[in-house]
Design goal:
Length: about 450
């Protein structure tokens, strides 16, 4: 048997689709055909280790209808001319055939399939087959559940299957290039991927805080273990934790390091783009993020989360009731998310109690102790153009209560002074300390 590579497997699938389309049109228009039904046209046999596309089909056990749906949605990206057959015009009405479905893009001149197109290909005008295909695709198919295929929403009074059938950009990239496309920050996806150049040894935390963070790493590793027996069978997927403590104490850095250590992307949610004064918009915006993140092994990080997940109020007005409905919706989406969700806030007391009960971990990031501050100062100025031996970091760390984020701000101030030609010494550092304290309403 011929051993195909990834491109060869996709090419074979497209050839199979071409045969299916040819047979469907001949059968539909009562032209001579070698087949009594398209089910007689067997899909290409798939062998293991023939590429990502083949592995995806085998791993997920895709049936013939699912494979048709997938390759039909891929065709506009790789061989758009293969769908030109759908431009056949109805000479009786001088227009395209309504039953073919499909649409055209603003710039793309080829045929873009819709859900109706898939129903026509798989079932023609057989209502029973069409109904079965529609129900299976929307309710059972792994392609829709994992977000590989999307049936784009339509207006409430339009047929559901008239929505465009498309492959998600992440999966089209994965099938064709072997890597998942990283989504760009936009109004549809208000989240930014965050990374760090630091490593675990750069993170200064109390031992008990570090132990709790290690538990999260262990959960990620355990979640990836194969099999659904034992605890996997009874414990609900997903892990939710709260990081709380003053600004600059390492909450964001810890989230970034968790991603770096476990090979997962960390996306920081932009709450200014999520929260909307318009009814239903906040839920819609949040839904976009969770839908995109589904089955991607991402870590979702909500900073200053009390802006979105704060305490519910007594419902005395329609606005209060709507706000409480938003929180209830957020609770449900977070609880159903199978991955890691981290919420961060400066004050734990600002969080709604209903969220607190659903956290697997609530980790307090306190202000660093004098010993920890000394370590932070020494690490921060290790590569600075100054003689650190002449600077009394021990006294500075004991006297001034600054978190790691504030110390980094002092470093930035010192760098700028150095660029002006000012020699770095303790007095320059103290001026930076003074500025940081002033932000907090304190003085030296």
């Amino acid at each position: 048997m011929e051993k195909l590579n990834n491109e060869g497997v996709i090419a074979k699938e497209l050839q199979w689709l071409s045969k299916v389309l040819d047979a469907r049109f001949k059968l539909y228009f009562n032209n001579p055909c070698d087949y009594a039904d398209i089910s007689e046209i067997s899909p290409p046999k798939i062998r293991k280790n023939s590429g990502l596309y083949a592995d995806f089909i085998l791993t997920n056990g895709l049936n013939a209808e699912e494979r048709i749906a997938l390759v039909l949605a891929i065709a506009p990206h790789v061989k758009p001319e293969q769908l030109d057959i759908f431009f056949t015009r109805n000479i009786n009405y001088d227009r395209h055939f309504t039953e073919f479905g499909g649409t055209k893009g603003k710039n793309f001149n080829g045929f873009i399939p819709t859900g109706e197109t898939l129903l026509f290909v798989t079932g023609g005008d057989d209502l029973a087959t069409r109904a079965r295909t529609q129900n299976f695709l929307l309710q059972e198919s792994v392609l829709m559940k994992r977000g590989v295929l999307k049936l784009h929403p339509v207006d409430p009074y339009e047929p559901l299957m008239s929505g465009t059938l498309s492959v998600s950009p992440e999966y089209i990239s994965y099938f064709l290039s072997g890597t998942f496309l990283k989504p760009e920050y936009s109004s549809d996806f208000p989240a930014k991927r965050i990374e760090t150049v630091y490593d675990w040894e750069d993170l200064v935390l109390d031992d008990y805080v570090r132990d709790e963070v290690e538990d999260i790493k262990i959960w990620i590793q355990w979640q990836n273990e194969s099999g659904k027996t034992g605890p996997h069978r009874v414990i609900k997927p997903g892990y939710r934790c709260l990081f709380y403590g003053p600004p600059g104490t390492g909450k964001t850095l810890t989230a970034s390091l968790l991603g770096k250590a476990t090979g997962r992307d960390v996306y920081k949610i932009d709450l200014s783009m999520i929260v909307s004064k318009y009814i239903g918009e906040t839920e819609k915006n949040l839904s976009n993020v969770f839908d995109m993140a589904e089955n991607k092994d991402w870590i979702l990080f909500f900073d200053e989360a009390d802006a979105l997940f704060g305490k519910r109020t007594q419902a005395t007005s329609s606005n209060d009731r709507h706000s409480n409905q938003e929180i209830a919706y957020l609770l449900q989406r977070i609880e159903d998310f199978p991955g890691l969700v981290i919420l961060a806030t400066n004050l734990k007391s600002n969080m709604d109690d209903a969220f607190s009960r659903r956290f697997q971990a609530m980790i307090h990031f306190p202000m660093p102790s004098p010993g920890q501050r000394l370590k932070l100062w020494q690490m921060a100025f290790k590569d600075m153009p100054c003689d650190s031996q002449t600077i009394d970091f021990e006294t500075i760390s004991k006297r001034y209560l600054l978190a790691g984020g504030a110390i980094i701000n002092v470093v930035m101030y010192c760098v700028l002074q150095h660029k002006k030609g000012i020699a770095l010494n303790e007095s320059v550092i103290m001026e930076g300390v003074k500025k940081e304290l002033y932000k907090e309403g304190k003085t030296i």
